[in-house]
Amino acid sequence: MSELVWQHETELVTVVTVQKKQVKRGLSVIICARMRRDLGLVLLLLLSAAVESNSISPPGKPVLVGCRSPEKETFTCWWEPGSDGGLPTMHRLYYETERLEGVFECPDYLSAGRNSCFFDKNHTAIWVYYYLTVVASNALGNATSDPFKIDVVEIVKPNPPENVTLLLEGREDSSYLHVSWERPHNTDTKSGWVTIKYQLRVKQENSNEWKEYMSGTQKHFNLYSISPGVTYMVKVRCRLDHGFWSEWTNTTYVKVPNYLRNEKPFWILVSTLSTIPFIAAACVLVMKRKYVKQYVLPPVPGPKIRGVDFQLLKSGRSEDVISAFIINQNFSLTTGSKDQTEEYLIVTENENGIADPSNSQKRKKSLIIPGFCLDSEPPILNDCEKSGATNQEIDNYVKSLSNMKPSQLPAQEQQCNFVNADATGHQTSNYDNTTQTFANSSYVDIQRHMENIQEVDVKQVDYRRVKEVNGDNILILPLNSSGCIDVQRPKDNISEDYSKVKVVDSDNMVFLQKEKVSVDTSCIEKGIYYTNFALQKPINTSKVEVCTEVINSEYVDTFSAPPLI
Amino acid sequence: MRRVWFAVLALVYLEHLELSMKVGTAPICAYGQAGCHILSLADFFDRVIQQSSRMHGISSDLHSEFEQYFFPSKNSIGKRKCHTYGILTPDDKENAQRLGREELTEVILRLLEAWGDPLSQLYWSMSQDQNQDFNHYSSNKALEISDMVHELRDGVEKMAEKMKLLGVLGNTVSYISPESLVPSSALSFYKQGEFNSLDHHDLLYCFRRDSNKVKNYLQILKCTTLPGLDC
Fold it and tell me: Do the domain assignments include residue A546?
């Protein structure tokens, strides 16, 4: 028998050896009597042995099952042998490459175990096709497998990652799971030969589904959505470039401790305690709601009108309302007290021109009615006039007046002469600035203040009308009843005009501003007219022209004087 | 109306982003600030590697489609050669590392240069083919990889220039087109009579392999030039 160490062959040898011994024994014992029978038996046995050893055949065809490269530098191939044909069979692997001519045999049958062939670095070429065949051979024949074509790049499947560690990190309420691992030790990423990508999957212990995450080239991963008190299972795998995925690592377990439950009673206590003051405040507010309401929403005060009874108004009786309003009306009488001495006539709407009595003496101004008083007795100072009027001035004026053509005046019943030494050019010094000019008055509100002079009429309020204007800025104010000025109306229907009052000099005199040149041609003919009478300065111009002019202005009611000339 | 405007603006911006991603040649630090050069070279590498990876992925898909439709038997023996067989390429790690940066760059450029024309012609040929259903998507992919090869070639060239400027690459890198190494008409190499799907398959297989080589060489180049975290 051969010395091969094949298992089945040794068995055969043993069997045959045993049988042979038995045959020998049998022969020695039954030698005479049963020589023929034993011989037959022996022959039978030998034949059976021979028959057994005759089921030998050439080996069956082996099959190459696959190859694998764990790091793209070496690779291993495995095959499956066919039947061995009863004889010890040898298998050999042969390969050819694109690059090299010739057929080569497997360099290493042992390193990778039975029915395998390991190609080390020296024998491995990338991007090159290998054509592999396995040949099984025994004493009776050979069997060749089908050729197997591989490119190393296409059979890359790495080992699984190593040393998967799980760490629980972060604060108690925001903790996360930090998973880390290492690359399989035989891969070379440092030179850039391969690029490893990782994938991990996580499962809760009592769940059935794995969650998968890609980690790219990182060797760590953070899991943020973890629940406390749960055990997690983690696995990692990897692949090189575009190759196959490795096997999953063994499962690593980690249990997340329970934080929240220990803290729950504490938080419940805190929350209940904090609600007590709020409840107390709410009760207080409810009980004292009236005060609260008053404080927060004070009543809106109603309208207040002094002297008016709101309730009365609300009751809606109109007469009472109106009377209420009227009662309250308090028109101030525009007179001063009796103490006040006013020598002059103040024509104003707004003001009380109160001047000292002493001043009034200086007041010379008065309205001049040229011609008015000419007829009559020499100019007298009206009792309305100031007593201080100098006679001289009056005389002067009268003279001047007499030089002039007398103005025609409408016959008037009572005419008073007004003497006014007012010549604007005259003594300006005599005139105070107390003459007041009044721009707008339609009606002349004459205030007659009380004077020390007894002849003063105590009329308080009076209205005068301008009767006539003879010269420039001359206003005629006839007084009535006091004997000074009569308010007289012209007999003829002369339209009344209004003039602007400029200056009020005395009680009886008012200077009008001549606004326009009147239609009266007499003035023009005369060529004397007064044009520029400054409002503010009482006496500026020197001329006192007598001109019968009609001053037409809208302010002071004037009588248009007929032409005097 | 505002939404429409916003959508339009967003689209324009995204498109601009995508376009700028494709080019892969513009450095980030344009003004050469100190410490900026190294950074921009790393970006160069990243973009180039990214593009080559994408190119390889598309070519693999295309090749698999062909295999699925036309060649059900995987283990067809046919020993075929690629038209770039004349370009000597390192076929394992040690050889690649032994080669050095300049030669490695040269190999990359030669490979990319050799595939410019064949891919364009492949696209043209595929678009002419009768089998319209299959070829519609495949011809788009063929067009895409044809464009990418040209872009990648330009990108690697510029990157090599930059490396020369930085002094990490010697001046021996030449850009001679590998006409002597590659058959002048690449397609005729694959043609067996009429250039048909069989030839497409061979050509695609060859390109798939070469694109993988390019990607791997670029990675080695990166890690030898800029050893860092990724390597």
Answer: no
